[in-house]
Amino acid sequence: MEGTQPPQAERAFKYFDFYGSMRSHKMMLEDMARMKAYHSAIFNNKSEMIADKVVLDVGAGTGVLSVWAAKAGAKHVYAVEASNAVQLARRLVQSSNLSDVVTIIHSKVEEVEIPEPVDVIVSEWMGLFLLKESMFDSVAYARDKWLKPGGLMLPSRATILLGLYAPENDSDRTDFVRAKLEKEIAEWNETVTNLQGLNVDYSGFTDQVVQDWSDYFFKNSIRVNYLSPNNLASAPQKVLEFDCATVDPTALIQFSQDFQYTISKHAEVKGFLGWFTTDFPNGVVLDTGPGPTYSHWGQQLYPLKESLKVAPGDQVVGTITVSRDPDEPRFNIIELKYQVGKGPEQTALFNMGDVQHLDQGSKNVFS
């Protein structure tokens, strides 16, 4: 139909539309682990890293990183934002009396022209499990086009970690999934009874309802917070680590990593738990892993349909493959192949496009 946007354009519009609202930015601005990490990264050693430098802020949002860079003494800051949050950034820059230092540009970074090379690129590009939303592609584009040789990337390194989720009795987040599944089944059973009263029998469809809803709940990850490291059955392992200044973004489209966990306690493994860290050049680390500190990213829980009973010394081995969803490149598909010792190999598949959210505790608890 004439005037209808192609699917890619419609999805892009929805993506940028989401970030045009203060609803999304409120959540990020309330994340003090995030805010303190970037504040420290910019202001610690600011005379060496930021002062008198030209800075490019990719995906500037409400403009907070641009304002901090200007206050840290940047010669000039180019703040590029594709969503309508650009209006919020203009307000913040104007109210901070920094309009002569910060230039706000309403555009995708791939479609803009920056009038000079830059010394520093700062961006908060990370998504759930680090790579959801695929925003690093835009950061890498800006890096390759405008960053001076030897220029600075904030953050400078990124790491994805994966652990075995073996919950303590009082903190099993997979109960959340099972409770939702039981609710759907109970509602279906009630529907069957109601329809029988209307002279039609759907009881033969119950197995299919259970199967379809089970597939749905166990193929979507859960975002959780405040998990204790005690909920891990062994030390976590790195899935991916890269240097933001040199990595080829095409290497992030699909990658695999073998893992081998040595179990440290008697436990029932009910899923895999993923998170990320980012490092900044001055030693600041943003860690979204298990612990008491709130992060709006949280950890990603990939629940298993059947738990694994393990004992000290057991080996859980396998491979994780992360790939982009061909139908929605801003989402990831996670495939986990795993086995205990020489037992049968099992496979679990998750789509990061439909994340179930489970937040517990206060956002104001910081370590």
Structure, described:
This protein has 367 residues and is of the alpha/beta class. The chain folds into three domains: 8-124, Vaccinia Virus protein VP39 (Rossmann fold, 3-Layer(aba) Sandwich), CATH 3.40.50; 160-168 and 222-357, Hnrnp arginine n-methyltransferase1, CATH 2.70.160.11; 174-218. The protein contains nine helices and 16 strands. It has helices at residues 7-18, 22-29, 32-43, 46-49, 64-71, 86-95, 136-146, 174-196, 206-217; strands at 54-58, 76-81, 102-106, 118-122, 147-154, 157-165, 222-224, 237-243, 254-262, 267-279, 285-287, 299-310, 315-325, 328-340, 346-351, 356-357. Strands 6, 7, 8, 10, 11, 12 and 16 form a seven-stranded mixed sheet that branches. This is Class I SAM-dependent methyltransferase. InterPro entries: Arg_MeTrfase, Methyltransf_25, PRMT_dom, SAM-dependent_MTases_sf. Residues 55-151 form the Methyltransferase domain. Keywords: Methyltransferase, S-adenosyl-L-methionine, Transferase.
Mean pLDDT: 90
| Assembly state of the chains shown | single chain
Order of helices and strands: HHHHEHEHEEHEEHHEEEEEEEEEE
Q: Can you identify the CATH superfamily of the largest domain? A: Hnrnp arginine n-methyltransferase1
**Low-pLDDT sequence parts:** 1-7, 360-367
Q: What CATH architecture of the largest domain would you give?
A: Distorted Sandwich
Q: Strand tally, please?
A: 16
Specify the helix fraction band.
Answer: 25-40%
